[in-house]
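Running this now, will post back.
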Amino acid sequence: MNIPHFIYEVARSPYYRSRPAQAVRLAYAKWELAKHRATDPRQFLERLGIDAERALDRFDKWEPALDEMLAKVRRQEGEHGGVSREDGIILFALARTIEPKVVIETGIAAGVSTAFLGAALIENGHGGFTRLNCRQTRSSRSGKPTEPCSTGRRWGSPGRFRRLFGRDSGGDM
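Update: finished.
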């Protein structure tokens, strides 16, 4: 647990400032969470009761392309959002284990999670992928949204990566 961050968090919160007992409970909950936090994706999966070896079967096939995409995203300027490599590995394993008929992803950043999930769906041999991306801008005059949410069955990943999946133009998997 990050003590200075915790103190800052409690000091900013009128709720915790006025309820010291709740602040102590929050500290205990954060300490318990930190104590059990997994430091490795495989460890995390095992704690969920998922056989990590089985869930990550054939991940090695995708690993070079996924790592290349992550490196490219990190080199670009600006805020890209997206998930870490570790989170991507967990997403891949969960999709391999659950074998969903369809994945609905909300909020496409750089396409990193899309790529990890898409690779898992391809390895599963079935499954569709739908994204929902809301990038609303506000009119300077009215303050109302000027662009509605978009939906579609497309890849948020760079073209080269889409070709690896065999989906140059987007679409159902």
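Residues 151-158, 167-173 have pLDDT under 50 and may be disordered. More later if anyone needs it.
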